[in-house]
């Protein structure tokens, strides 16, 4: 409301005696409820025999919910509660009261990494030491974001940059890491990935030795767990644990007061997809020593039994104060009602004064109060309209006011010059705007008009965001409705045309070198425009693929409607993301079923159609249907994802024994970057290896290892080391295999990839066999099968079969090896790949001549007789 009043002071003329007042109409009940909630949580924590942070079975009493219709004043109330809390603390000389504010409707606000770092930034005001969280975060970051400095991530978002730099968050975390590993700050300061992994190893080893935070339950488990969002979503527990330690160390009798204000919560609990709400709820539950003040349009249903399955913590046992039966004990849920007539009159009387008296005549106030029915946003717009009439030299009368909210919005639009009317309509199309975005939407509007419009009182401003201006959501909707009755109002076609220009601007802003945070935020804005206005731009498909390749797929599209809205391209992008999510979580068959029919209705060859197809192919390949996957990859050659398709086609040729074809294609391929080049080198190594050209294979893998080390790509280095072990094993070089396996396992301990562990164990089985240690070889074959079964990796049994056949050949088990060969033959034929292993093992069982006849389609590099002759020598080396 301050913007409205400030504008009034400047618009009423040089000689005006009108005075603008900043008015907050007291929400007595809600303010009192907040104060009782702060006190009540403190009493709960002080009275607990065991801290609820540690006793996670205790019901949570740390959520105050303020819900009500749009425009009722929830956000204003939330800001006022925060202001009063901090003002009261300052008056008492307290420095242990901190707040964190997150508007969940803002782009990127629902990203779990960003949310946790904003919480950590706020808590950093209480002190710099948060060892459990900081060490866990450093360990997570080293593995989840190889080569990416944490400080770069902090600086990418304006809101996070402002919060983190205010307390020197990067340096606080770095100082904690130095205490454990004085030389290792990789991942925090941008050092090489290997240095970051060394930091993780130092933390992990001290945890295993029981020398680091042994009294923090589950700290070790979180350090050892995979570096993914599922693990990260439990890190709030570590923040709460650290906060508990601060409370115990406090010299005063009081524990710190921490309040987190989560605004616009309806974006999480107002739709069918509750994925992000589940992660946020987990955060709230695991921080029972923090008061969360949630404002939104909907009541929170966490205490209802019907929410089970979608959320982790549900029912009155988990949230005793949030159940609908509780109407007394704070903190609880409050319906934020409309202002009473007397409160509304107080606001209108005090908003504009002359010599201490209300400027608005009583009959005007009554008309506004009757029309507004206590809706604060209605009062705001009416005050703006009154100011506009004064500025034109008129004397506002009661006839100028009243009517529905849409009618008020209509008057607000009419008060604007023509150019600004188009600007407000443009602003109503999207969540946030800035001067450049407005100019993109209205390229013929003057800069002066844009500047004047951005000073209008109905726009809120927050310079923590790249697009700092916003209209209230209720006002955005009302403007669209009101616009239909205006003579120069926009048609749906007009809105779509402007939305197309906004999408184009967002795509240009993204460019090809934007970081993943910016990419995610811009894509989210684009998807919202697409859903609401039926528009689409090809850059959205490309941005989606960039985020998927960067591993940032878990939050994509969360909270957005997926059915019966937007364009077919919009729905296809969301389906592609869901397919990725299914495939990456071990549900490849479901991913195939979802994506198989999504491409229908899309323009053939469009980036979106290709996006769907590339992920359908990946899902088919994961499911073991190499043939169908290859058909799709082949169709994508020369298109949007040409390099990806060509690589996987080479892989398919390799799997099917077309070695010369694959090798020729790989030699001609141009890599997009070091990651691609490493994959190309490894695939070349595979071809040499299965042709028993072991020296060439070693050379290719060694080059891939050197490249990965130079680029700090630990995952790629681990894969190449596993392949090196798979090569050395055929010579019975147990020590060389052990060395490569140890180095690979060290890296895989940091960047897990269970498929590579299967390959390493199979290599050990072969090395033991060739070296004559049958007992160790049999044990390793069994280990290979157990590992493969544990992750559903059918290809692992092919490797185990090959090793088992070699054991049987050298041990004289003729019937056994033929039986195992039959199983290998059937399995590889079903999958459409790895069939070349059958002639290889046949060369051991029946000799080279019979082996060359087994599958004449295989393109052996040096011809069947020579290549299989080299393989036959393996069985004679012992």
Mean pLDDT: 85
User: How much of the residues is beta strand, in percent?
Assistant: under 5%
Question: What is the makeup of the main sheet?
Answer: 5 strands, parallel
What is the β-strand count?
10
Radius of gyration: 32 Å
Q: Helicity range of the residues?
A: 55-70%
Structural class computed from helices and strand pairing: mainly alpha
| Anisotropy-based shape | elongated
Termini gap: 87 Å
- Uncertain residue ranges: 1-26
Overview of the molecule:
By secondary structure, the chain is mostly helical. 60% of the residues lie in helices and 5% in strands. The chain has 42 helices and 10 strands. The strands form 3 sheets. Strands 3-4-5-2-6 form a 5-stranded parallel β-sheet, sandwiched between helices. The N and C termini lie far apart (87 Å). The model is unreliable at 1-26 (pLDDT under 50).
List the helices and strands and how they pair.
Layout: H1 2-11, E1 18-20, H2 28-47, E2 63-67, H3 74-91, E3 97-103, H4 112-123, H5 131-144, H6 150-156, H7 158-165, H8 169-180, H9 193-208, H10 219-224, H11 229-232, H12 236-249, E4 257-263, H13 266-269, H14 275-286, E5 291-296, E6 333-335, H15 341-351, E7 352-354, E8 357-358, H16 362-372, H17 376-391, H18 405-414, H19 418-427, H20 435-441, H21 447-454, E9 459-461, E10 469-471, H22 473-483, H23 492-510, H24 516-533, H25 539-549, H26 568-584, H27 588-595, H28 607-622, H29 626-636, H30 642-655, H31 659-668, H32 674-690, H33 694-711, H34 714-728, H35 734-750, H36 754-771, H37 774-791, H38 795-811, H39 814-831, H40 837-845, H41 848-854, H42 864-874
Helix pairs in contact: 1-17, 4-7, 5-8, 5-9, 5-12, 15-16, 16-17, 17-18, 18-22, 19-21, 20-23, 23-24, 24-25, 26-27, 26-28, 27-28, 28-29, 29-30, 30-31, 30-32, 31-32, 32-33, 32-34, 33-34, 34-35, 34-36, 35-36, 36-37, 36-38, 37-38, 38-39, 38-40, 39-40, 40-41, 40-42, 41-42
């Amino acid at each position: 409301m301050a913007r409205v009043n400030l504008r009034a002071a400047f618009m009423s003329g040089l000689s005006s005696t009108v005075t603008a007042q900043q008015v907050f109409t007291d929400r007595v009940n809600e303010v009192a409820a907040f104060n009782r909630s702060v006190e009540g949580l403190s009493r709960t924590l002080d009275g607990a025999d065991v801290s609820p942070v540690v006793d996670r079975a205790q019901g949570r009493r740390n959520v105050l919910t303020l819900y009500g219709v749009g425009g009722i004043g929830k956000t204003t109330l939330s800001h006022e509660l925060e202001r009063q809390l901090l003002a009261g603390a300052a008056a008492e000389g307290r420095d242990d009261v901190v707040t964190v504010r997150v508007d969940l409707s803002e782009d990127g606000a629902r990203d779990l990494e960003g949310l946790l770092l904003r919480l950590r930034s706020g808590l950093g005001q209480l002190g710099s030491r948060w060892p459990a969280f900081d060490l866990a975060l450093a360990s997570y970051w080293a593995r989840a974001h190889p080569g990416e400095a944490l400080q770069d991530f902090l600086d990418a978002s304006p809101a996070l940059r402002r919060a983190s730099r205010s307390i020197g968050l990067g340096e606080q975390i770095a100082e904690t890491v130095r205490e454990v590993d004085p030389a290792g700050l990789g991942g925090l300061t941008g050092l090489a990935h290997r240095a970051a992994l060394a930091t993780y190893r130092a933390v992990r080893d001290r945890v295993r030795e029981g020398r680091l935070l042994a009294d923090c339950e589950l700290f070790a488990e979180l350090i050892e767990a995979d570096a993914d969002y599922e693990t990260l979503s439990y890190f709030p527990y570590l923040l709460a644990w650290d906060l508990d330690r601060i409370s115990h160390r406090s010299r005063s009798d009081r524990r710190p007061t921490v309040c987190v204000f989560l605004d616009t919560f309806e974006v999480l609990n107002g739709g069918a997809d509750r994925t992000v709400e589940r992660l946020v709820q987990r955060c709230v539950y695991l921080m029972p020593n923090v008061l969360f003040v949630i404002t939104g349009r909907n009541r929170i249903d966490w205490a209802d039994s019907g929410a089970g399955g979608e959320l982790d913590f549900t029912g009155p046992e988990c949230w005793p104060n949030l159940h609908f039966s509780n109407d007394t004990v704070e903190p609880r849920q409050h319906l934020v009602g409309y202002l009473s007539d007397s409160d509304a009159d107080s606001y209108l009387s005090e908003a504009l004064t002359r010599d201490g008296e209300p400027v608005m005549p009583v009959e005007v106030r009554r008309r506004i109060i009757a029309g507004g029915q206590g809706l604060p946003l209605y009062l705001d717009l009416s005050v703006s309209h009154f100011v506009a009439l004064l500025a034109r030299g008129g004397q506002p009368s009661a006839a100028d006011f009243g009517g529905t909210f849409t009618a008020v919005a209509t008057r607000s639009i009419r008060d604007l010059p023509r150019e600004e009317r188009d600007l407000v309509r443009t602003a109503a199309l999207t969540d946030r705007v800035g001067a450049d975005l407005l100019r993109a939407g209205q390229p013929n509007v003057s800069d002066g008009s844009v500047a004047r419009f951005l000073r209008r009182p109905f726009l809120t401003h927050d310079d923590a965001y790249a697009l700092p201006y916003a209209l209230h959501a209720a006002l955005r909707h009302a403007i669209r409705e009101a616009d239909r009755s205006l003579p120069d109002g926009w048609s749906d076609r007009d809105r779509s045309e402007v939305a197309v220009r906004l999408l184009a601007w967002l795509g240009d802003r993204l460019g090809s070198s934007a970081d993943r945070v910016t990419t995610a935020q811009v894509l989210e804005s684009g998807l919202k425009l697409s859903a609401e206005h039926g528009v689409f731009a090809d850059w959205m498909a490309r941005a989606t693929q960039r985020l998927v390749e960067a591993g940032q797929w878990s939050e994509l599209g969360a909270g957005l409607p997926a059915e019966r809205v937007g364009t077919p391209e919009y729905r296809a992008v969301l389906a592609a993301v869901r397919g990725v999510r299914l495939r990456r979580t071990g549900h490849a068959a479901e991913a195939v079923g979802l994506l198989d029919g999504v491409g229908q209705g899309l323009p053939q060859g469009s980036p979106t159609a290709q996006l769907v197809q590339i992920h359908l192919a990946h899902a088919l390949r994961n499911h073991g249907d190499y043939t169908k996957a290859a058909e799709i990859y082949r169709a994508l050659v020369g298109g949007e994802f040409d390099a990806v398709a060509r690589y996987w086609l080479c892989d398919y040729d390799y799997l099917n024994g077309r070695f010369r074809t694959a090798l020729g294609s790989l030699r001609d391929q141009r890599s997009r970057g070091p990651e691609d080049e490493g994959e190309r080198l490894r695939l070349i190594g595979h071809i040499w290896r299965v042709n028993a050209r072991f020296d060439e294979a070693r050379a290719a893998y060694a080059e891939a290892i050197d490249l990965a080390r130079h680029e700090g790509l630990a995952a790629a280095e681990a894969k190449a080391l596993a392949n090196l072990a798979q090569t050395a094993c055929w010579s019975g070089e147990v020590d060389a295999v052990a060395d490569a396996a140890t180095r690979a396992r060290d890296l895989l301990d940091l960047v897990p990839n269970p498929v590579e562990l299967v390959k390493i164990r199979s290599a050990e089985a072969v090395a033991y066999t060739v070296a004559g240690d049958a007992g160790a070889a049999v044990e390793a074959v069994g280990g290979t099968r157990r590992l493969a079964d544990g992750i559903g990796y059918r290809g692992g049994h092919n490797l185990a079969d090959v090793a088992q056949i070699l054991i049987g050949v050298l041990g004289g088990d003729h019937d056994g090896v033929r039986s195992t060969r039959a199983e290998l033959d059937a399995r590889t034929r079903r999958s459409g790949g790895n069939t070349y292993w059958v002639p290889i093992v046949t060369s051991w069982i029946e000799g080279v001549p019979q082996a060359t006849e087994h599958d004449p389609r295989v393109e052996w590099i040096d011809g069947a007789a020579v290549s299989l002759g080299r393989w036959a020598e393996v069985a004679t080396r012992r």
